[in-house]
UniProtKB/TrEMBL annotation:
This is IclR family transcriptional regulator. SUPFAM superfamilies: GAF domain-like, Winged helix' DNA-binding domain. GO terms for biological process: negative regulation of DNA-templated transcription. Signal peptide: none annotated. Keywords: DNA-binding, Transcription, Transcription regulation. The lineage of its organism: Bacteria, Pseudomonadati, Pseudomonadota, Alphaproteobacteria, Rhodobacterales. Gene3D superfamilies: 3.30.450.40, Winged helix-like DNA-binding domain superfamily/Winged helix DNA-binding domain. It comes from Pseudooceanicola atlanticus. GO terms for molecular function: DNA binding; DNA-binding transcription factor activity. Residues 13-77 form the HTH iclR-type domain. Residues 78-261 form the IclR-ED domain. Transmembrane segments: none annotated.
Length: 263
């Protein structure tokens, strides 16, 4: 009886892990469209029948959403509502979310707060500028591999060389989903970010988008969050880039100053 109970517990734990992995894959940005059943079953290496059962449970509970017209899956409203719960970790991010809002207002471009999560970066806050052409390659809650996009690359650049190599090797099979990303290009971007303090993405993830990001050691020894911006590439020049770098650096310094006063 005891042995059977242990087996049931193991099966339950496995089911939870599989469901969590599936949700992560749904939230992961690996192209322009949400994933299909086929995409998800291949990504998590499960038979389509097993993946379908897990996805049905996720959609039935509202953790995921299925669009019958496109046959694609997105994060559901329940996942969004759970993410709104106020915890100490959320409160710690509040000053940095405010910094993102100020950057967006001053730079007049879409600005993001990205948080490192394993070998991914998740968007936890977004603020839009006032420009007519709005660039929004990532929505709140969506995930990207480290090295894909300016903010995610800034986070990758702050990690030890050995960790960087392991992450690049792990994400290489998925890089072909993006405009101009290869392992060598990611390594070049990491080296440049370390040299200048800023990560730049000029059409690597999306051809028409320029990205600029900075990693921040907010609550860890290594950068655990990043502030990044995204702009319509044809409108970007060296003068604007220099201005944006100054704005981001100033807001990071000001936020650190405010946090130091509170302690």
């Amino acid at each position: 009886m005891k042995e059977g109970g242990n087996m049931a517990n193991q099966d339950g734990t496995q089911a939870i892990r599989r469901a969590a992995t599936m949700l992560q894959r749904i939230a992961h940005v690996a192209g322009d469209e949400p994933p299909t059943l086929r995409n998800l079953s291949q990504a998590v290496d499960l038979p389509r029948s097993t993946a379908h059962r897990i996805l049905k449970a996720l959609t039935d509970t509202g953790l995921a959403y299925y669009d019958p017209q496109t046959r694609r899956y997105e994060i559901g409203m329940l996942s969004y509502e759970l993410g709104l719960a106020v915890t100490d970790n959320v409160l710690q991010l509040a000053p940095w979310a405010a910094a993102v809002d100020r950057v967006a207002q001053r730079a007049n471009v879409t600005t993001y707060l990205m948080r490192r999560s394993g070998m991914e970066a998740v968007c936890v806050h977004k603020a839009e500028g006032r420009t007519v052409i709005r660039v929004i390659p990532v929505e709140v809650g969506q995930r990207r591999y480290l090295g894909v996009g300016a903010g995610a690359t800034a986070l990758l650049a702050g990690l030890p060389d050995e960790t960087v190599d392991r992450i690049i090797a792990a994400v290489t099979p998925d890089l072909e989903a993006f405009a101009d990303l290869t392992p060598d290009r990611v390594r070049e971007a990491v080296a440049e970010a370390r040299r200048t303090g800023f990560s730049e993405s000029q059409g690597r993830a999306y051809r028409s988008i320029y990205g600029l990001g900075v990693g921040v050691n907010a609550h860890a020894a290594e950068p655990d969050i990043a502030i990044s911006i995204a702009a319509h590439a044809p409108e970007v020049d060296e003068t604007r880039i220099a201005e944006w770098k100054t704005i981001i650096a100033e807001e990071i310094a000001e936020t650190r100053k405010r946090l130091a006063v509170r302690r």
